[in-house]
Amino acid sequence: LRESKAIAKAEFDRGRALAAKLVGSTPASIAYIQNTSHGLSQVALGLDWRAGDNLVVSQEEFPSNYLCWAQLEASGVEVRRLTSANGRIEPEQVQEAMDERTRVVAVSHVQFYSGFRVNVAALGDLCAKRGALLVVDGTQSIGALRLDVGLAGVDVLAVSAHKCLMGPRGIGFASFSPRALEQVTPRIVGWLSVEDPFEFKRTLDFLPDARRFES
pLDDT of 56-105, one tens digit each? Predict the structure, then answer.
């Protein structure tokens, strides 16, 4: 078992490195995910939401990047829904919806219904000033368009492989900024989420990097 694990590890590490290179991230910031819904739900469920917190999302977003946030209303989180004029999401519109209690701005890099390419870097500046996390669905763009998460200020990028990456269903990757790694706690936890998993222990000592989100 350990030998097969060592063989697989080289391929897992290579995949992380390639994903990081593709989006301007680092291998330690990359986690494998099942799909976009899985990656975004990790963030939605993993933040320590407080009464009065809010998030901003377009009501015309693809359901993967909408339903995971909408469910938080039952926990008292205010979901501020933007209306996209002609399928466009502009930074000024997002800025108007934000305040000091905004924890997340969730957006797709390229909008599913309109094909509009969002100015992610401008949103990254807004979120940095407000202390909010910028969470981006990149499934409609990554593999076809360039996005450097570091330069654009993206805190979480979730990508499913079955579109522009031309991969199979059931796998993808997410990139987490250092700020996101500090704030998001894994809520889908498995034996590979912790240090030295092949010791088969029962200690919840999460891995120090994004691998903690790989259950």
Answer: 999 999 999 999 999 999 999 999 999 987 889 999 999 999 999 999 99
* Measured distance CA(61)–CA(113) in Å, rounded: 8
> Could you give the C-alpha distances from 177 to 21, 135, 168, in angstroms and in order?
14, 10, 26
Strand partners, 137: 108, 158
CB atoms under 10 Å from CB of 57, counted, come to: 24
Give me the residue label for tokens 């466009």: 88
Q: Is there a contact between 98 and 126 (Cβ–Cβ < 8 Å)?
A: yes
The residue among 157, 171, 207 whose CA lies nearest residue 186 is 207
Count of helices and strands (H, E) across the chain:
7, 7
User: Rounded distance, CA 49 to CA 46, Å?
Assistant: 9
* Beta strands, E only, the chain: 30-33, 54-58, 78-82, 102-108, 133-137, 156-160, 172-176
CA–CA separation, 30 and 13 (whole Å): 10
Output the pTM of the full model.
Answer: 0.94
Question: Is 42 within 8 Å of 193 (Cβ atoms)?
Answer: no
First to last CA, the chain: 18
